[in-house]
Design goal:
Blueprint (H helix, E strand, L loop, with lengths): L10 E2 L17 E2 L10 E8 H7 L17 E7 L4 E2 L7 H5 L2 E5 L4 E2 L3 E4 L6 E5 L5 H4 L4 E6 L4 E2 L10 E7 L1 H5 L1 H7 L6
Parallel strand pairs: 3-12
Antiparallel strand pairs: 1-2, 3-4, 4-9, 5-11, 6-7, 6-10, 8-9, 10-12
Length: 191
Amino acid sequence: GQFGTGELRSVCVVGDVWDKCRERTFKGACVVPKQMSGVPELVYAAEVDLEGMRAACPAKQKKACACPAWASSHGILATWDAGVTLNDGKPVRAERHASKYRVTFADGSAVRPAYLEDAGDSDNNHLLCFNETFAAWEAGESPMSLTFEAGFLTDPNNDGLNEETTVNITRAECVVEKVSEIVDQSNGAFF
């Protein structure tokens, strides 16, 4: 075809493609495409302010964008490259599987969420909830990375169990500011 017959090695953005907050462009960004038959992989993580999300979220979508009332004000939005389920096809369970995630700070300390909320999007976005605020967060440190343990999740095609995946965590200010717009446009999903 017009793109040749060789293996696709990268995809690069050549024009201005802006993030949802219109704060930065992805022009010049390149990624290596993942094969469609691969196992699920954690691809994005963002720190979110749960107080702001609770206030901004439309009433009809409260479950899709907020942790339980007992949770601390810190949360992490985790995004997978495909829908994920347990190996038996059942959905990921809030209390039982939240502990498979690990958040690491610059000082090497690590915490695990107490609960996860499905973003209502066929399970490729999880909102991670914590039952306390940890010393690193209180000291103003932002979390550095998010890891998910190997061997628990598969994709809808049951292509195999996930490998351990670690991604850097970003600060998602616009998720809080525009959550109602994002949720409304995506029928409950964040992205």
